[in-house]
Design brief:
The chain is of the alpha/beta class. It has 12 helices and 7 strands. The strands form 2 sheets. A 5-stranded parallel beta sheet has the order 3-4-5-6-7.
Length: 274
């Protein structure tokens, strides 16, 4: 299964980068395979009504927030602003529980400071009903993110951007994972692929094969073993999105996609069919 994080970036892409409605086309084709998250930008006119539409049409369970997105003369917004809080309260009212703020590195011409992770703190404190999955774990501000996440039990770390280090700089990846596991624990770290930039298969393999060095295990007092990897790769996301993994394995192992791509073997050990 895949979770789409919708990002519009309409100032740079005429029809949007990957909009909610575009992503929902795949949801309509394979609703059992995909979860589509919505988005909001509190600077946009009618944004509260648009959030309601996304919930009504697609029953979104989460929103992707891109605080460095440009809008007219504005080059970013803050998660802890009054306007943002109004939208986060709307998420609570609508039953949209998972908030995915993008807090990571930027590319030109986006403003790096607009992805500062500090605004997660007050938002997470003010809305304990919501789960804040901070995508890219605040890189390059990992320390700031970890201190905030240690304080706020509803803050999670998403590994997109961090995960490729597992292949290209494995010791750096071990350092990042060591910090996350020490501060947050194994139940609050989620895999992210950055699909759209590359296909995720190699990335999943790299993370699954990654190991902490002996020095890292001694320093952080944690293990990145198979059980922890299973949580990071999928079980933690399944928990946030109310997915019963065994039921899904039984459901998916004989669907059209499994037959088309000969995936039946991927679901060995699935719960028995009814």
């Amino acid at each position: 299964m895949g979770i789409f994080q919708s990002t519009h970036l309409s100032e740079f892409y005429g029809s949007g980068f990957n909009t909610v409605d575009d992503n929902a086309e795949l949801l309509e084709q394979s609703p059992e395979r995909f979860i589509v998250n919505g988005r909001f930008d509190p600077r946009e006119e009618g944004s509260l009504e648009e959030l309601e539409r996304q919930k009504e049409e697609y029953d979104i369970q989460g929103v992707k927030l891109y605080t460095a997105e440009w809008h007219g003369d504005s080059k970013g917004w803050r998660l802890d602003s009054d306007e943002s809080f109004e939208h986060l309260q709307k998420c609570v009212d609508l039953g949209i529980e998972n908030v995915h703020p993008h807090k990571g590195p930027t590319i030109r011409p986006l403003n790096r400071d607009a992805f500062d992770v500090s605004d997660v703190d007050d938002a997470a404190t003010s809305f304990p009903e919501l789960n804040f999955v901070v995508e890219h774990v605040g890189l390059p501000r990992l320390d700031d993110f970890c201190w905030i996440a240690a304080q706020e039990p509803n803050v999670y770390g998403g590994l997109a951007v961090a995960a490729p280090f597992a292949q290209n700089r494995p010791e750096k990846f071990g350092e990042i994972m060591g910090e996350l596991l020490w501060w947050l624990g194994e139940d609050r770290v989620l895999f992210g692929s950055d699909y759209g930039i590359w296909e995720p298969e190699w990335l999943i393999e790299a993370v699954m094969e990654a190991e902490l060095t002996s020095d890292q295990r001694a320093e952080y007092g944690v293990e990145f073993d198979l059980e922890t990897k299973k949580k990071v790769i999928g079980e933690n996301a399944a928990e946030l999105y109310d997915i019963d993994i065994e039921e899904k394995k039984a459901e998916l192992r004989s669907d059209d996609i499994s037959e088309q791509f000969d995936l039946g073997g991927r679901y060995e050990g699935a719960a028995a069919d009814d």
